[in-house]
Design goal:
The chain is α/β, with parallel strands linked by helices and 202 residues long. The chain has one domain: 3-Layer(aba) Sandwich (Rossmann fold), CATH 3.40.50.1820. Helix content is 41%, strand content 13%. The chain is built from 8 helices and 5 strands. Helix 4 packs parallel to helix 6. The chain is globular and about 45 Å long.
């Protein structure tokens, strides 16, 4: 499952990257759902994106496709938050998670409390946010995080990586030249695919 960012939709990964070419020939189905602007949580007022996409969508796809019950999830920016949220919240389903340039401070960084839109969503973060879920996830899904050194979210990524270190949570973390843009994500999504292949064995 591949998740989009805040200002995008379900078409963006195929429109702005060579994803189709990168997965050609691999025994994998890539689901790219639309998560709106909902940060992939079940909002107190609004859509239940977490339930719909981490629980209902996999079950629906399994009724139409001959899938194994082996899921990986990745995303960029808001979708990076969503990817880790899905995996840490449902480690029984998602064995591998990858965040590019993730908005990993959602629910903890005061920057996200600037608008009523985010205030309505923060109910879904809070105690069930990434930092809390990382403490209790069992089994621990494989996690990889990367971010560009010129990305405005770099501090969020560094803070969450430090949190994982403090938990003795085995993970991968890398910083590369680059900013918050599609040139960066098109280059590094190939590393995400390789990470999932290693963890799921495909």
């Amino acid at each position: 499952m591949l998740l989009h960012g805040l200002s995008d939709d379900d078409t963006m990964w195929t429109r702005r990257t060579s994803l189709e070419r990168y997965v050609e020939g691999l025994p994998v189905v890539v689901a790219m759902p639309d998560g709106g602007r909902g940060f992939y949580v079940d909002a107190e007022e609004g859509s239940a994106f977490y339930t719909a996409l981490s629980e209902e969508l996999p079950a629906l796809l399994a009724t139409y496709l001959p899938l194994k019950n082996e899921w990986a999830v990745g995303g960029l920016s808001m979708g990076g938050y969503g990817a880790l949220r899905f995996a840490l919240g449902r480690p029984d389903r998602f064995r591998s998670a990858h965040a590019h340039s993730g908005a990993l401070g959602f629910g903890t960084n005061p920057r996200y409390r600037d608008t009523a839109e985010f205030d309505r969503l923060l109910h879904g973060a809070g105690e069930n946010g990434l930092m809390g879920l990382a403490k209790i996830a069992s089994p621990r899904p494989a996690i990889r995080i990367d971010c560009g050194i010129d990305d405005f979210l770099i501090d969020d990524n560094r803070d969450f990586e430090a949190h994982l270190k403090g938990l003795d949570y085995d993970h991968e973390y890398q910083e590369f030249p680059g900013a918050h843009d599609w040139a960066y994500w098109d280059e590094h999504v190939r590393e995400q695919i390789a990470f999932h292949r290693k963890n799921l064995g495909f």
